[in-house]
Amino acid sequence: MATISLTVNGKAVSATVEDRTLLVQYLRETLGLTGTHVGCDTSQCGACVVHVDGKAVKACTMLAAQADGTTVLTIEGLATGDQLHPVQAAFREHHGLQCGFCTPGMIMAAVDMINRHGGPLDEATIRHELEGNICRCTGYHNIVKAIEAASAEMAGLRQAAE
Amino acid sequence: MGLEGIGARVVRKEDKRFITGRGKYTDDIVLKDTTHGVFVRSPHAHAKILSIDTAAALAAPGVIAVLTGADLAGDRIGGLICGWMIHSRDGSPMKAGAHPAIAHDRVRHVGDQVALVIAETKAEARDAAELVEVEYETLPAVVDPAHAMDADAPQLHDVAPNNLIFDWVLGDEAATDAAFANAAHVVELDIINNRLSPNPMEPRSAIGYYDPSEEHYDLYTTSQNPHVARLVLSAFIGIAPEHKLRVVAPDVGGGFGAKIYIYPEETACLWASKRIGGRPVKWTSERAEAFLTDCHGRDHVTKAKLALAADGTFLALRSDTIANIGAYMSTFSSATPTYLHGTLLSGQYVIPAIFTNVKAVYTNTTPVDAYRGAGRPEATFIVERLVETAARQLGMDPAELRRKNFIRSFPYQTPVILTYDAGDFEGNLDKALAAVDYAGFAARKAEAKARGKLRGIGFSSYIEACGIAPSQAVGSLGSGVGLWESAEVRVNPVGSVEILTGSHSHGQGHETTFAQLVNERLGIGMENIQIVHGDTDKVQFGMGTYGSRSGAVGMSAIVKALDKVEAKAKKIAAHLMEASEADIVMEGGELKVAGTDKKLPFFQVALAAYTAHNLPAGMEPGLKEGAFYDPTNFTYPAGTYICEVEVDPDTGKVEIVQFVAVDDFGRIINPMIVEGQVHGGLAQGIGQALMEGVSYDPQSGQLLTGSYMDYCMPRADDVPSFKVDHVTTLCPGNPLGMKGCGEAGAIGSPPAVINAITDAIGNNNLSMPATPAKVWAAVHAA
Fold first, then answer.
1. Which residues of A touch B719 (CB under 8 A)?
2. Same domain, B41 and B112
3. What is the signed CA dihedral for B148, B151, B152, B154, rounded to 10 degrees?
4. d(CA B584, CA B592)
5. Residues 6+ apart with CB under 8 A from B135
6. B553 CB-contact burial (10 Å; exposed 0-12 / middle 13-18 / buried 19+)
7. Is the Cβ pair B201, A134 closer than 8 Å?
8. Residues B598 and B672 reside in one and the same domain
9. pTM for the whole thing?
10. Which one of A87, A97, A99, A121 makes the best mutation probe of the B interface by having the most chain B beta carbons within 10 Å?
11. What mean pLDDT do residues B62-84 have?
């Protein structure tokens, strides 16, 4: 058993977990944050992507014990109150989701992708960067459009702020 | 068209909860005192179960019960069923072997369930499952449908000698053979339609709960059709009568057919909850389990041929298919290779004589059932590969050969049962040719050649029958259920509306499109409309969502119920405004007296219906109407897809440089959502053509593609952006003129891709999936 303390979506939490408990299990089953999904068991699908200390991580591939002392952001913590994050808003505006199951991981991966690259992203970059996230509904067409639009909007916001 | 009415690109109402992580899928639901179930599964493709020792597992920490097939049989729980009767050409009924929810004496595929371990936590259940000792006597296995009927093939079910379930025919064999005998040209193909795993991203999950105080069961499950699940679990499997069983399908993360069926796992969890004294039993599939147990799709082996006159006129088509059903007959497994397949072999063409023979066989593999398109992709692949091959053989332009043979007048009675009601096949083709710049192809090919790349173009003019469908017709063909749909419109006293529908949304966006219909009819804002579905306690009955039926059938039921609401509202309005009922018109959320300035907002009429202070004499209070809608025909979406590829001859890698899809879906409620359906279908069809294929070891029967490391799912980098457009001929068979749009992409695209690659490489001998290794070999064999 391991005792862990971390910050999840801005709140300090601590717990005693089995050594084998995955971060995604801790988030879903202990904290009840069921927006982070499990779509496979080989770290391929990306439905479980969250941010750990600001970087995209597949929460099925990290032990809860390894998250001790970190800051975790899940899909539930991405919006600011009723104000959607630009990537969330773009997924809605561009119909970048259908069944919604891969969506939290897609959005968290997209936010990370945009943060890493800065500037507006082109289609080829987005498609390449999405290799760790599988969607079965959309054929990716509108996911790519949504990320393109959000990356342009976020670049504009950054520029305006500077 | 209003801002939110029919035809508007309204962003989806349901998205808010999904993009903020607040969707509620089955595995997200935690009932009080939940226990966790893990299945012990067969590691063998075929074996006798000699003994099961559960003692060590039962003694493990947290374990509540270990249940076996003997326990299930002891409680007289019935086996799973196939709900569509097919008769063989000799008139005999199909030979369905028993399918217990937990195997009793024999296992027939890797992953067959042999015990259910229930514990306080999932980890404890998983640990204990390792301790269940099963003694097997292994038997030889057969996985290849082409060898299932061999004299020395292992036998799966005693009721089905030679593993043959049925030997089904459709069409006029003598006329077809005669046409071939006299044809100027005959084109022949051997086709393997590769076996696929549907892979909705949400794994299947179930929570069974028996409440001893009420003697009532609840089942939360990842289902596309909760009412059908309740019917089968009650009437056939016999767990509880329908009034003592509630089935809830909450948010469901994709289906594509794989979540239509009534599976062993939800059956076992529901039954087990009573066995352990009334605590919820929850099971959630892992992806590895999903590959082993979610029904697969396709898996046909076909010999096909097309007869043509000297000028390219089609004369006859014949196909002979062996369809792999897997180890057991799944819920609708018999319908897919027969009436959803043979009936589409006329394609978009006048073909005077057609004959098809389908032999369905058992093998030691996961059951096979409907997967997006279900039989229609297999038929389309046969027709469109034959037509393209014929064009090459006769030296004709593939577009013009299609145009020459298109059906042009409707209704058109095909030689294989269906009556096409409307379409504009030439319109689809012309629009697609323009979008792809067909005239410029030769120049693009030459330019690619200069770069060392092989460029090819391929067509597919598909038609499908969907909006499944007329109850009387499907009943006469063997369906065990009617395929109508129900709806109820509840107008609240404040004028807001709830629509209860038997359709189920698992990505299709019904909460938006159904609300758009209500907005169009009643003039109510989208925020005041709630779509209720997926709960048998709320919606009285329904047939669910599959076969692209929610628009054409589900929305038609809503239209019928709205008609009744409108009629009653007009009566009330006429009474209140002292006008003639015939003079009342409904417009923009108001009931008006034509030719005057008298009017009442809809919500005031709704309130009047409930206060009942001043209603027409004899009228019942309230404003709530229900309807059942049963169509008189299928709907027939059709389109032309054109794929343009570049092949690298050094590596065999195929790049799709252009994909154009022109579809005729009749009336479109929300173009944004319809385009999304096409995109998704195209990616699945391209996946089938280039990447996906379930593979079994031929000797051991082990599944070789059991994870995303081995089964090649299309990623963002594997598919292009698509050019999607529409031609519109309204469907005459339903009130909105709608055709289904959910499956077209997956039906039409595989032959377009293969036609394009074979055009590029100059070798027509290429099977799906056309992986780089296969394409490279084909390039160098040419």
1. 139-141
2. yes
3. 40
4. 5
5. B49, B50, B51, B52, B53
6. buried
7. yes
8. no
9. 0.97
10. A99
11. 96
Do A48 and A105 touch, CB atoms closer than 8 A? Answer: yes
Reported as a pLDDT band with limits 50, 70 and 90, residue A78 is very high
- What distances in angstroms separate CA B271 from CA B77, B115, B262, B279, one per listed residue? 8, 13, 14, 11
**Chain B residue with minimal CA distance to A89?**
B19
Please name the residues between 53 and 72 in chain A that touch chain B, using a CB distance below 8 Å. Answer: none
Is A122 near chain B, with CB under 8 Å?
no
Q: Which domain holds residue B509?
A: 484-629
Q: If you average pLDDT over residues B77-84, what whole number do you get? A: 95
The yes-or-no verdict on residue A158 having pLDDT over 90 is: no
Asked whether residue B19 is assigned to any structural domain, the reply reads: no
Cβ-based contacts of B707 with chain A (< 8 Å): 40-42, 44
Distance from CA of A5 to the nearest CA of B (A): 23
Amino acid present at A45:
C
Among B21, B672, B707, select the one facing A74 at the smallest CB separation.
B21
* Same domain assignment for residues B733 and B694: yes
Q: Are residues B568 and B541 in the same domain?
A: yes
The answer to whether position B176 is within a domain reads no
Q: Are B276 and B308 found together in one domain?
A: no
- Only one residue has tokens 């000297």, namely B310
Q: Tell me the pLDDT tens digit for each residue of B474-530.
A: 898 999 888 999 999 999 999 899 999 999 999 999 999 999 999 999 999 999 999
Residues 4-63 of A with CB under 8 A from B: 18, 20, 28, 32-42, 44-45, 47
Quick one: which of B268, B283, B257, B455 has its CA closest to B372? B257
B639/B657 same-domain check = yes
Q: Which two three-digit tokens encode residue A131?
A: 């290799």
Residue B504's CATH number: 3.30.365.10
Indicate the pairing of strand A55-58 with strand A49-52.
antiparallel
Q: Do B21 and A40 touch (CB under 8 A)?
A: no
- Tokens 């977990």 -> residue: A17
End position of a domain, from candidates B270, B293, B316: B293
pLDDT digits (tens, 9 = 90+) for B357-412: 999 999 999 999 999 999 999 999 999 999 999 999 999 999 999 999 999 999 99
Gap between the Cα atoms of B112 and B114, Å rounded: 7
The span from the CA of B3 to the CA of B451, in Å, is: 49
CA B261 to chain centre: 11
Query: In Å, what is the CA distance from A107 to each residue of A91, A113, A121, A124, B279?
Result: 8, 10, 15, 18, 36
Pick the residue of A63, A87, A140, A142 with the most B CBs within 10 A to test the interface with B by mutation. Answer: A140
Token pair, residue B18, equals 């999904």
Domain count, chain B: 3
- pLDDT at residue B209, rounded to an integer: 98
Checking if the pLDDT of B583 tops 90, the result is yes
| Segment B560-573 mean pLDDT | 97
What are B252-267's pLDDT values in tens digits? 999 999 999 999 999 9
The answer on pLDDT for A130 being more than 90 is yes
Last residue of a domain, which of B574, B604, B629?
A: B629
Contacts of B25 in chain A (CB under 8 A): 34, 37, 101
In a domain, B3, yes or no: no
Q: All domains of chain A, ordered by start, with CATH?
A: 2-77 (3.10.20.30), 86-161 (1.10.150.120)
Average pLDDT over residues B452-479: 92
Task: Tell me: do B388 and B516 sit in the same domain.
Answer: no
Mean per-residue pLDDT for B411-437? 98
At A160 the pLDDT is: 86
Report if residue B167 sits inside a domain: no
Q: B529 and B431 in one domain?
A: no
